[in-house]
Amino acid sequence: MSNYSKIHAARTSIWLDDLSRAALRDDSDVSLRDDISKRNVVGVTTNPSIFAAALADGKSYRDDIAKLKAAGSTSVEDVAMSLMITDVQRACDVLADVYEESDGKDGRVSLEVDPRLAHDTKGTIQQARMLFKAVDRPNVMVKIPATDAGLPAIRRAISEGISINATLIFSPDRYRAVVDAYIDGLRHAQRNGVNLRNIRSVASVFISRTDSAVDELLDELESQGVSEAADYRGQVGIAVGRTCYGIYEEVFSQPRYRELHKANKQRPLWASTGVKDPAYPPTHYVTNLVGPNTVNTMPRATLNAIGELDDVPRDSIRPAIADANRVLSGVEELGVDLTEIFARLEREGVEKFIASWEDLLAVVAEQMEA
Q1: What is the signed CA dihedral for 262, 266, 118, 368, rounded to 10 degrees?
Q2: Could you report the per-residue pLDDT of 29-63, keeping only the tens digit for each?
């Protein structure tokens, strides 16, 4: 059994955090079909940064841009959105068999709403509806940032039967709010006559970005003579993920969920799982977060590194939940304000996605001119 198969057998779904025209070609060395057959990839996530990088390849998109212009599309935003929707549709088609075989659990492709709407509830709801309709594939997931304004948008979208990837989650408290929004959305969907079996959702907890922020403060403390600070390096993001899993087990065992007999659980998804500190093994945020009914969406470098592992744990989450709480408490006892860090990471995450979106539009504008 390959390492990829072992992760799959442990009920952690491997999703690829990448999409490009090259991935959609069967003759490519980054073929999505190869990833499905050889590496147990069962889903794809995208974001503005990924599309900005993909669209920088002018040759792959030149013909589509020319056709859109010839058809009267002059808006840079309309052209960019059309190109992204087309790529997501094609990826959904490649993953259609996985979707059917998993009864809709996997085979998913996520497409994010315009990040400039992250603080606009009404605008997010409207664009979520538009994207869901435009992609017109049962296995699409619309990605909505879990900001204060995003939470009611997530709730509303779920109530209308739209499958949602709630993204940009950094703290256990925000994760709990997302799960609550999902269950509230399901209850409204049930009253609206929506088939709950058709609604799927994941809650994307960002892991490595948290460690990057916390490790910097821990290094400062260590330089000041606080030797125990070093013990927590590279552990806080994982502890957040494990704590969120504990919340997942708690909430989905409660009557308010169990009463929704045909509803699917919202799976925790580990995002930002590429290591940013070379001191950590490349699979640091994979092997430490293997557990039932989870998703790990990873960049290609991390995906490839799994093949070099000596072994894969069967469950590295549930036995370590109590220790995760100890890690978070221990870090705060050293004077690290995790609440402030989580809030800052969310703000910066939105800002980075907006910057990537603007980069994407600039690339499309250049190619339209060319």
Answers
A1: -90
A2: 999 999 999 999 999 999 988 988 888 877 888 89
